Amino acid sequence: MALLEELAASGKTRLLIGGDWQPASDQSTIQVLDPSTAEPIAEVASGSTTDAIAAVDAAAAAGPEWAASSPRQRSEVLRRAFDLMTERSDELAELIVGEMGKALAEAKAEVAYAAEFFRWYSGEAVRNAGSLLTAPGGDKRIISVHQPIGVSILITPWNFPAAMATRKIGPAIAAGCTMILKPASDTPLTALAVADILGTAGLPDGVLNVVPSARSSKVVGAMLADDRVRKLSFTGSTEVGRILLEQAAARIVKCSMELGGNAPFLVFEDADIDAAVDGAMIAKMRNGGQSCIAANRFYVHEAVASDFSRKLSQAMASIQVGPGLDPSTQLGPLINQAAKNDMIEVVETSTGSGGRVLTGGDAPDRPGFFFTPTVIGDMAPDSDVLRREIFGPIAPVVTFHTEDEAIDLANNTIHGLASYLYTGNLARAMRVAEAIEAGMVGVNRGLISDPAAPFGGVKQSGLGREGSHEGMAEFLETKYIAADW
Ligand code: ADP
User: Fold this and answer.
1) Short-list 448, 447, 444, CA closest to 274
2) What is the pTM assigned to this prediction?
3) Is 237 in the pocket of ligand 1 (CB under 6 A)?
């Protein structure tokens, strides 16, 4: 891994604060493991609360000048960062595989997706429009402008170490905010590499500070208690999101929350079944199922359930499992031992409530955190497994009888992030898409992510949107100026 060697040799596995790469104040480090071997590959500085506050100092100091920088300057930094990420795509992909485990082809796709956020927000940076209205009473002009909200905390998960970071950094830079990124402690290396690229692209010191930390709750708590912090953008579990919202409430910090999902995948009797299976493989197996928008529950009409389940099982059984860097690998390991234990438990709970393993169902006998692609048929609609986020390569299939029943089953969750439906009937597609309680609906598509689209959830899946113009609006405050002339 050439990029890892380069980062380590130049001290860029340390904290980035105010443009300096520095060790943690108490010299703490995090060991980064390769999930395909469970062996350490790197040591990264693990920030303390002192370091976190030093990062807030740096972001606050850089704030006024960056807020006053020209939109064109911010746009060009982002555009150069897109070019550099694209040039270094192979090296970045290897680094992602090293710390996160996914198959190399998927890591390359992630780098391309991640870089697109920089290209998209390079365009948005110069389109921060306001508005002018004559008041209905004719007594004044109502001017609205959108100003950078200020110092922002960005917290990212381990599943897409590059894309979850660029999806937050891109719009924050475009809006003119300064920030502190706390990447997941399982995957801090990619975030540090992206920060280094932004420095090369001309991002001024202090605009982006990176503080990996194994003490996330203390470090984030200290930053949220600091009056200079105005924004929190979090991607992770609903449980942690709830804790952070409570902490943010003390100082009324504006929050964007991308939380857990429990995506239904509906297959109607009039669907093209082969296309539905192809879409299911993407929606379920992208990132090995370790995605908040992964299809989590398959609801299939009784007339096509056995055909769909058989074809899905065949496709799942044909997947090549192995270390991510092996070119023949299609599915890498899970992130850690806890995730592997979770999969074993999902299978046990499913079969305990009447489910039947159609393929897979166990962990291969090898080191690392691997699990075999699994389909479980005949699931009872009220099984506990259908209420939880699986976050791995297991597809539970439930049979339904009517469209209304399918919609009720899909909506029977506290979550509302992604959803998917397959049907050949356009009217049904639009009717069901409108009735589903989710922030995103894939219609005859298993892949929905796009930097130009508003990504986000309803119900307990989150607050706010990322990507699209809305993603930049999350880092802006509206100011109304009443004027008379
Ligand atoms: P996942 O581990 O599935 O990504 P988490 O919600 O546990 O989901 O973690 C998402 C991010 O939130 C990670 O960067 C993690 O370090 C951080 N995190 C976890 N717990 C806390 C907490 N109590 N306070 C602040 N950040 C946290």
Assistant:
1) 444
2) 0.97
3) yes
